[in-house]
Amino acid sequence: EKTPCSSRMNSPFSDPTLERHFKGHRHTVTSVDFSCNMKQIATGSVDSCVMIWNMKPQMRAYRFDGHKEAVTCVQFSPSGHLVASTSRDKTIRLWVPSMKADSTVFRAHTATVRCVNFSGDGQTMLTSSDDKTIKLWTVHRQKFLFSFTQHMNWVRCAKFSPDDGLIVSCSDDKTIKLWDKKSRECVHTFTEHAGYASYVDFHPSGTCIAAASTDTSVKIWDIRTHKMLQHYPVHSGAVNSLSFHPGGNFLITASSDSTMKILDLVEGKLLYTLHGHQGAVTCVAFSRAGDYFSSGGSDEQVLVWKSNFDECIESSNGVKSQCKSAASSQSRPTVSILEQRLTLTEDKLKECLENQMEIGLHLQNRDEGRRWPNQHC
Amino acid sequence: MMSGGDLNPAAVPLPVEDRQGDGRWMSQHTRFVQECKDGEPEVLFVGDSMVQLMEQYEIWKEMFSPLHALNFGLAGDTTCNVLWRLQNGELENIRPKVVVLWVGTNNHDHTAEQVAGGIVAIAQLLTNRLPKAKIVVLGLLPRGEQPNPLREKNATVNRLLRSWLPRLGQALFLDVSNEFLHSDGSISSQDMFDYLHLTPTGYNTLAKPLSDLLLQILEETPEERRASLV
């Protein structure tokens, strides 16, 4: 009974829905990541634990103790066999995500470690720290390879490009830096003015980067031309995290204003605002295939949502429903508000402005027509 | 030196009564307590309007924000008020490496000895709560356009602090008073627009030595330098 999507429709999707709601952390959740097989989700928290959740309702979650202070970041290795976690205790731990919770710990930095990122081949990993450095390590035996030391303040985040050839980092020194992994040189510096970026990542194509800023904006820069491509002033609080959909057309952002927003990068506009957390949303990540995303917040909750980007929904009058509650009824309501109504209004406004311009031009041409005989050429 | 037995009125924790009726003092204190939940400060500034005003000028953004500093200055506060605030939430959850303490010029009901005693009591509290932190106590600046009794009182407080603070191992004293006095003893409105509060120019005079000291303390981590990498 589904009617095929008309190509004229801006957003032929059904709204994202809340699928799972994980409770267990005892303090703010700081980081979330899906394994490649999509069965497990790893989270880190200020409660100093790493937790591994299973998407199957019957499977229980694991809690990994070990870090002495807040966990700042977690990431699955590309193969899914390891989970790396970083902490305020200045160490990195590599866990095997099973009941045994084996882990290796190594002291990587001389201050809080903020972020860890595996290279695509799983052989190396990057760490960034309040000690102002970014370090590259082998995963096997955790051998230190080298440091990138140009930042002048805490380095909040460092990520490999999709082909592992470049690294992007952001710091409280208000810069975002691009580094060439082979030459180890900083090839470009983007400077923020108002706040600083607390999270950066590469677009799946590798051609641009997105930065989440404390000044509430989300910015996209082209890494070849170094120009800013898009600027989304959509949040009313600091943007803490973001995640590109693997297809490259969408970006989800998490903010201290307690919402997440899904941005349509092709149209350059806001698509959805998601409410579900009480308090700041600190982290968000798409699954590797993009069909789910997960978020964590200062409310200690971990939410898992179904993206529903592939499905088209029919509607009788061509206008989408304004909002839809979570499909699976949870004790807390969540709302995805489709921004298309706003777009329709904007389109109408655009039409008015265009009409106005045409009228203006028409009048101008009429006046000029009268003056022409008198003009000097 | 005030002994434990004497009750120094300047060392008694007291909140400010809401006489004007708009609850502003409590609003500010509540906001500071909330900032302790969200922030990860390496430097904490606490005191009266001399501290509070600093955050309104460019100097704060340039020199102190990058150090991950929190500003818990509250205009009008005495040593009693700062003591109360620190005991009632403004030290929860945070572990700054340095605390900058600047208070005492509003203690009009107390003698110079009592004021100095109150400042030392705050420094002691900070050391108890944050054993690893350094406490930088700023000397009270001269006030009033020309020499006057309050200037003498503040100078006496500074003299006493200079001799009492060394007994607290983690406390340092920084006094830039002389920078503000002209040869004829007058203070310029270019430095203090109302002969009490500092202008941006006035803050620049203070900020440089203070910033140097903070950087020195923050970079001074001998234990960390020795840490092995792998």
From TrEMBL, chain A:
One of its GO terms (biological process) is microtubule-based process. Gene3D superfamilies: YVTN repeat-like/Quinoprotein amine dehydrogenase. WD repeats lie at residues 22-63, 64-95, 106-147, 148-189, 190-231, 232-273, 274-315. It holds the Pfam family WD40. One of its GO terms (cellular component) is ciliary basal body. SMART domains: WD40. The keyword Ion transport does not apply. CDD domains: WD40. Keywords: Coiled coil, Repeat, WD repeat. PANTHER family: POC1 CENTRIOLAR PROTEIN HOMOLOG A, WD REPEAT-CONTAINING PROTEIN 55. Belongs to the WD repeat POC1 family. This is POC1 centriolar protein homolog A. It comes from Xiphophorus maculatus. The lineage of its organism: Eukaryota, Metazoa, Chordata, Craniata, Vertebrata.
TrEMBL record, chain B:
It is an enzyme of class 3 (hydrolase). The keyword Nucleus does not apply. Pfam families: Lipase_GDSL_2. GO terms for cellular component: cytoplasm. Residues 1-20 are annotated as: Disordered. Keywords: Cytoplasm, Hydrolase, Lipid degradation, Lipid metabolism. InterPro entries: SGNH_hydro, SGNH_hydro_sf. Its EC number is 3.1.1.47. Residues 45-203 form the SGNH hydrolase-type esterase domain. Its main location: cytoplasm. It catalyses: 1-O-hexadecyl-2-acetyl-sn-glycero-3-phosphoethanolamine + H2O = 1-O-hexadecyl-sn-glycero-3-phosphoethanolamine + acetate + H(+); 1-O-hexadecyl-2-acetyl-sn-glycero-3-phosphocholine + H2O = 1-O-hexadecyl-sn-glycero-3-phosphocholine + acetate + H(+); a 1-O-alkyl-2-acetyl-sn-glycero-3-phosphocholine + H2O = a 1-O-alkyl-sn-glycero-3-phosphocholine + acetate + H(+); 1-O-hexadecyl-2-acetyl-sn-glycero-3-phosphate + H2O = 1-O-hexadecyl-sn-glycero-3-phosphate + acetate + H(+). One of its GO terms (biological process) is lipid catabolic process. PANTHER family: PLATELET-ACTIVATING FACTOR ACETYLHYDROLASE, PLATELET-ACTIVATING FACTOR ACETYLHYDROLASE IB SUBUNIT ALPHA2. This is Platelet-activating factor acetylhydrolase IB subunit alpha2. It comes from Xiphophorus maculatus (Southern platyfish). The lineage of its organism: Eukaryota, Metazoa, Chordata, Craniata, Vertebrata.
